[in-house]
């Protein structure tokens, strides 16, 4: 089975691109969804987060207060790395399990949307890497509009990730999401066809 990782940066259109790949018939999974699942109430992941950051990060109903947690780790490099050490291994374990199930069910290829693929050094675990990309100024505008945040905050969020140009340089395929949705759709369709052909040739 051909394993594909989709990545990019904040507000570069990864979620939209993942949806388009799914529409093209590729099985897909979203690491952000898994990241929430591994810290759901009653999970070892949530227990580990509470053990590191305290009970104040648990909100009503026993769910993780993500905003409270974000406020604790956003400007604290050590705290952020501690959180990543709890979350990332569990997310990659879940992705590996999902990939294995796709393989067992006879899928020719499967795609995982992983925002921090390069930052976590896991790109070598996938056969193909696709990057959703747009210029930094477009990224900035999208983050500010989407999250109703300041330019300084948007800049800090973008700076916390690898530069999108470096991710694009390391990718097998790049999808520029700057233009119209129809342009992105065409590019996704092109790459989906290439991936299907590559999977069939294995």
What are the key terms here?
single chain; about 200 residues; alpha/beta; Rossmann fold; 2 domains; five-stranded parallel beta sheet; 9 helices; 5 strands; about 55% helix; about 10% strand; globular
Q: Could you describe the 3D structure shown?
A:
The structure is a single chain. With 202 residues, this protein is α/β, with parallel strands linked by helices. It has two domains: 1-27 and 108-202, Rossmann fold (3-Layer(aba) Sandwich), CATH 3.40.50.300; 33-106, no CATH class. Helices cover 55% and strands 12% of the residues. It is built from nine helices and five strands. The chain has helices at 14-23, 31-37, 44-53, 66-73, 77-104, 136-147, 151-159, 164-170, 181-201, and strands at residues 2-7, 28-30, 109-113, 128-133, 173-176. The protein has a five-stranded parallel β-sheet with strand order 2-3-1-4-5, with helices on both faces. Helix 3 runs antiparallel to helix 5 (77-104). The model has no long low-confidence stretch (mean pLDDT 95).
Name the CATH class of the largest domain: Alpha Beta
What would the principal axes of the Cα set say about the shape?
Answer: globular
CATH architecture of the largest domain: 3-Layer(aba) Sandwich
- The helix/strand class is alpha/beta
The strands making up the biggest β-sheet line up spatially as: 2-3-1-4-5
Element-by-element helix/strand order = EHEHHHHEEHHHEH
Any idea of the CATH topology of the largest domain?
A: Rossmann fold
Please tell me the overall pLDDT.
Answer: 95
**Approximate helicity band:** 55-70%
